[in-house]
Design goal:
By secondary structure, the protein is α+β, with helices and mostly antiparallel strands. The chain is built from five helices and seven strands; from the N terminus they run E-H-E-E-E-E-H-E-H-E-H-H. It has helices at about 15-25, 70-85, 90-95, 110-120, 135-150; strands spanning about 1-10, 30-35, 40-45, 50-55, 60-70, 90, 110. The strands form two sheets. It has a five-stranded antiparallel β-sheet. A two-stranded parallel sheet has the order 6-7. Strand 3 (about 40-45) and strand 4 (about 50-55) form a beta hairpin. The mean pLDDT is about 85.
Length: about 150
C-alpha cells in the first residue's frame, strides 16, 4: 500500500488567502495533492495560471491528511491528474462562492474543486459530493469524516 497526502494551506499567505479564509469561515485557503515522489498537484490562479505540478513543499505551511491507496489507485489518480495539467484556473468557480448563479466551467478548475474531483475519481469521496462548490475547509471536513469511519484510508 502507498498513498498520497492532501495538503491544506494554513500559512498567512497573501490578501486573497485571507479573503478566502474569511469568506469560507475556514483556517485553510488552498489545497494540493502530494504524491510520494514529492510532486504537488493543484490549480493555482496566481503563479502558474492553472492546473500544474510543483515541488515547493514547506511542511510548516500545511496541514497534512494522509490517504492510503493501493498502487493501482495511485497510478490512476496520477493519470487523471496528468490529463488535466495545463487546464485553466476557474476564477468563475471561485466567484460562484459569492455569486452562486455564475456558470460552471468544465475545462477550468480551482484547487479544492480539482482535488475533490481527483479523490472522487479514485473512490475516496462519494458520488454525492458536489466538488464544484467545495472549499478547502469542506474538503478537509469530508476527509476527516471518511477517516473517522474507515481508519485504513
Amino acid at each position: 500500500m502507498s498513498g498520497v497526502k492532501i495538503l491544506f494551506y494554513k500559512a498567512d499567505g497573501k490578501l486573497l488567502d485571507k479573503l478566502i479564509r474569511w469568506w469560507t469561515n475556514s483556517k485553510y485557503s488552498h489545497c494540493e495533492i502530494l504524491f510520494e515522489n514529492g510532486l504537488m498537484y493543484s490549480a493555482d490562479g496566481w503563479d502558474s495560471k492553472g492546473v500544474r505540478y510543483t515541488s515547493q513543499f514547506n511542511p510548516e505551511n500545511w496541514e497534512v491528511v494522509p490517504i492510503t491507496l493501493d498502487d493501482y489507485k495511485v497510478k490512476y489518480l496520477k493519470m487523471w491528474c496528468d490529463d488535466r495539467v495545463g487546464k485553466g484556473y476557474d476564477w468563475t468557480g471561485v466567484l460562484r462562492f459569492v455569486v452562486p448563479i455564475l456558470p460552471q466551467l468544465d475545462e477550468k478548475w480551482f484547487c479544492s474543486e480539482l482535488c475533490g474531483a481527483a479523490l472522487k475519481y479514485v473512490g475516496i469521496l462519494s458520488a454525492e459530493v458536489d466538488v464544484h462548490g467545495l472549499s478547502p475547509q469542506d474538503l478537509y471536513m469530508h476527509l476527516l469524516r471518511i477517516k473517522a469511519k474507515s481508519p485504513l484510508i
